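call fold(seq) -> tokens
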Amino acid sequence: MTTWIYLTLAAALLQNVRSLLQRQLATNELTVNGATYVRFLYALPFACLYVAVLFSGTAPPVPNAPFWLYASTGAIAQMLGTAALIGSFKQRNFAAGTAFSKTEVVQTALFGAVLLGDVLSWKVGAGILVSFVGVYVLAVRIRLAELLKPGGAVGLGLLAGAGIALSAVCYRGAALALDTGSVVERAALVLAIALFMQSTLMGVYLTLKQPGTIRSVLGAWRTGVWVGLSGMLASAAWFTAMTIQNAALVRAVGQVELIFAFLTSVWLFHERVTARETAGAALIVAGIYLLLL
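ret:
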């Protein structure tokens, strides 16, 4: 098993922890935008510390024009995707909200092919397809009216997947655009700069449009610190893995997060998981197995 797979598994587990904490904030303390902002604001100090340690004895890579284009696009796409994902949690259970966003894998493959020229083998494509069928099985019991409902769980999930997919490809593009630095160093620099952009842009928006939200976010620091730490560690693992390997392949293996989400739903929230959802999860696991053969 190569390094990128270990990093992806760790990222999926940590991301599930972060999403769990964000769900708690969105349900009990904050608005959707507030819970989204917590993920960026409280992760920024940890990312800065991470970069400071990595570059304590050497100069960081110098960002160029392609880097800034990819990094800024990825930062904005991730903000939109995260807000949509948290919004979907409010409309269906925790596992299903995560499941709808998993169309990101197919979308990542498409974005990667168009933006970076990343090509997938037939085996990887088959694994992604099987996993996608698993996601479809999880969602197929949704009524047509809900599928067509503007701003519904399905629409929000698909939007979340698109935002996450585009950000993944752009972050990989930003890291590859740097001329110097190790894989870990380039990924860390992308992470810190993206978080700075996200914290600044969303902070300005909330200050102008929802000033009370900023106070609430600062007041939720006890949970927010853990959201930030788990989110930063997850992102560092994701970014490093995607600098090493095709973003679509990394995100496909990262669908193991859905299994973690099911366990969380059953054990912590006592939410009911149907036989159809179990079958969908099994297909996702089968798809990941194909990817790793």
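The chain has one domain: 3-292.
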